[in-house]
Amino acid sequence: VVFSADGRRLAAADAQHIRVWDLAEGVPIPLTVRRDIGMFNGIDLSADGRILVASAVHHNASIDIVLWDLV
Predict the structure, then answer these.
(1) Where is pLDDT greater, at 34 or 17?
(2) How far, CA to CA in Å, does 35 sit from each of 19, 22, 27, 30, 46?
(3) What is the mean pLDDT of residues 24-53?
(4) For residues 24 and 3, is the Cβ–Cβ distance under 8 A?
(5) In whole angstroms, how far apart are CA 67 and each of 24, 25, 37, 63?
(6) pTM for this prediction
(7) Is the pLDDT reported for residue 3 higher than 80?
(8) Residue 10 has what pLDDT?
(9) Residues 61, 50: Cα–Cα separation, whole Å
């Protein structure tokens, strides 16, 4: 679980899913997550809450770093 520095966004992840909420509006922010991404093991939001970054590990130990523009 991570909050943006301005407190407007919240992101939470487990191994297979990421969810993001706009707390100011009280609504979820839709994300498209590719099925070929491995198991998520880390997330963070940019200071302004506009960019979400996630890391994922595959069964063969390769790592993906994925960015989403949440605007």
Answers:
(1) 17
(2) 15, 24, 24, 16, 24
(3) 89
(4) no
(5) 22, 22, 12, 13
(6) 0.82
(7) yes
(8) 95
(9) 29
Burial 16-31 (b: 16+ CB within 10 A, else e): eebebeeeeeeeebee
Give the HSE-up count for residue 37: Cα atoms under 13 Å, Cβ half-sphere.
20
Q: Which two tokens stand for residue 41?
A: 């093991």
What confidence score (pLDDT) does residue 26 get?
Answer: 94
Place of tokens 């994300």: 31
> Which single residue is written with the structure tokens 């590990």?
57
Instruction: State CA 30 to chain mean position distance.
Output: 11
Q: Give residue 38's identity as a one-letter amino acid code.
A: G
For residue 69, the Cα-to-chain-centroid distance in whole angstroms is 10
- Comparing CA positions, the residue from 66, 69, 70, 62 lying closest to residue 43 is 66
Question: Residue 4 in 3-state DSSP?
Answer: coil
